[in-house]
Amino acid sequence: MTGNKALVLLSGGIDSATTLAIAKSGGYEIHALSFDYSQRHARELESAQMVASAFGVEQHLVIQFDLREIGGSALTSDMAVPKRRLKDQLSGAGTSSFIPVTYVPARNTIFLSFALAWAEVLLAEHIFIGANAVDYSGYPDCRPEYLQAYEAMANLATKASVEKKIQFHIHAPLLRMKKSEIIKKGVELGLDYALTWSCYDPQPLPAKSVKRKNLSSLKALRSSLVPCGRCDSCVFRAKGFQEAGMQDPLTG
Questions:
Q1: What residues are paired with 35 via a beta bridge?
Q2: Closest of 196, 218, 249, 200 to residue 49, by C-alpha
Q3: Domain assignment of residue 131, yes or no
Q4: Is residue 221 part of a domain?
Q5: Would residue 77 count as lying in a domain?
Q6: Rounded to two decimals, what is the model's pTM?
Q7: Residue 160 belongs to a domain with what CATH number?
Q8: pLDDT tens over the chain, length 252 residues
Q9: Which of the chain's termini has less CB crowding within 10 Å, N or C?
């Protein structure tokens, strides 16, 4: 039954993991899609794999391509990740003067295009994305008008839709939720946030800690990374757990 299939964009962060949990609770057959695009914070892919496994998705596909060839972002170049931005800068997110350098040019459009292609092959009508327009960094491709426009385009640009086989729907269940509300919803649905990752600029554990943990494999080495605690994503994560009255299992 095509109406029961859902494709979820899964980065491994709080928002995408909670979105997957919401889709799963809706009874959908879940197909998860992640991207290795040579991002600075590739540690998130390990979390995406753990979340997908925890929720028993039908299939988890990781697509590789290199956005460093394009650059233009602190996440896909050697440009510094901004730390401890001022409160008024964060609250002004979304205006042209406050879109931070962690914005990756056209990233959600690229991600959704891959998702749409796979959804058409699967005949999956429902595409879920963890976009949020409340506690976020002001990225223009997280706004409701963008998602509405993409849904309209998807139904104009695909053979399956033109032939009336399916009608695509872009779901963004977290769009107007505060980070604290998102976290509470995930906990309610059984999501373990220790599996997730948010930091844009992962830092290695001190050498003594690495030696003590006897980290020999590449996977273990990735797991030895810790959040920087100062980038926008870390700040929003900390704020969310604090307002939810919970301890972040990743840092607590």
A1: 63
A2: 196
A3: yes
A4: no
A5: yes
A6: 0.89
A7: 3.40.50.620
A8: 457 999 999 999 999 999 999 999 999 999 999 999 999 888 999 999 999 999 999 999 999 999 999 999 999 998 898 886 644 455 444 444 478 899 999 999 999 999 999 999 999 999 999 999 887 778 899 999 999 999 999 999 999 999 999 999 999 999 999 999 999 999 999 999 999 999 999 998 765 544 444 434 334 444 678 999 999 999 999 999 999 999 999 887
A9: N
**Is 228 domain-assigned?**
no
CA distance 106 to 84: 25
What ranges in the chain are assigned the alpha helix state H? 14-25, 43-54, 87-91, 107-122, 144-157, 159-162, 179-188, 207-213, 218-223, 232-244
**Domain span at 60:** 2-198
Which amino acid is it at 152? A
Looking at the structure of the chain, the number of domains it has is 1
Q: Classify residue 179 by burial, with Cβ atoms within 10 Å: 0-12, 13-18, 19+.
A: buried
Query: And the tokens for 230?
Result: 């100062």
Residue 231 makes CB contacts below 8 A (sequence gap 6+) with 81, 82, 83, 102, 199, 200, 201
